[in-house]
Write a structure and sequence with these properties.
Order of helices and strands: HHHHHHHHHH
Number of strands: 0
Distance between the termini: 30 Å
Helix content: 55-70%
Number of helices: 10
Structural class: mainly alpha
Mean pLDDT: 94
Length: 180
Amino acid sequence: MPSPQSLSEPDRRTVALWAADCAERVLDLFEAEAPDDDRPRDAIARARAFGRGELDAAGEIARRFVAGRAAREVHGAAAVAAARAGAQASGVAHMGAHALGAAGYATLAVGLAHPDQPDAASAEIEWQVAHASDEVRAALLTLPPVGENSSGPLGPGLLSTGELGRIIARLQTALRTSAT
C-alpha cells in the first residue's frame, strides 16, 4: 500500500509546478553565494518539466538528490535553505509531500535572509497559499499533518523538526483555513 504522503501521479504533477514556483522565489539567495552552481535552478526546471508531463517519475527519482548536494557547498543559512527548496521541489516526482518541503524551505530561506523583518516568513506563507490553485490545495490537504505519519518526508525527521517543522505546520494550517 502506498504512503499517504505519496499522492497520485496526476496530483504530484500538479503540486510539482507549485513547489517549483515556491523554490524559485528564493533561488537568488543561493545564486548570490554560488552563481556558477546551476543544480538548484536545474532541479526547479526539472520539477516544472515533470509537472508538465515532459519527464517521468522514475528518471526524476534517480536525480532527486542532485540539488541537495549544492546545499553542502554554500555557507549562508539562507543559501542552504534555498538550495534545499529546489531539491525538495525535484523530489515531488518521488513523493508529493516534498512539495510542502519545498515551500517550507523557501519560507525558512526568506526568514533567514530577512531577520530584521519579523513578518517576512508569514508573508511568504501567505503568498504560497494565495498562489495555490484549488487543485494544488486539494492535493496538499490530503497529506497528513507534519510529524504524524512516518511513511515519508513529513514523518519524524528533518521536515518535522525545529523551525522548518513549525513552518510546515503553519503552512498546512493556512492551507486548511483557506479551503473553508
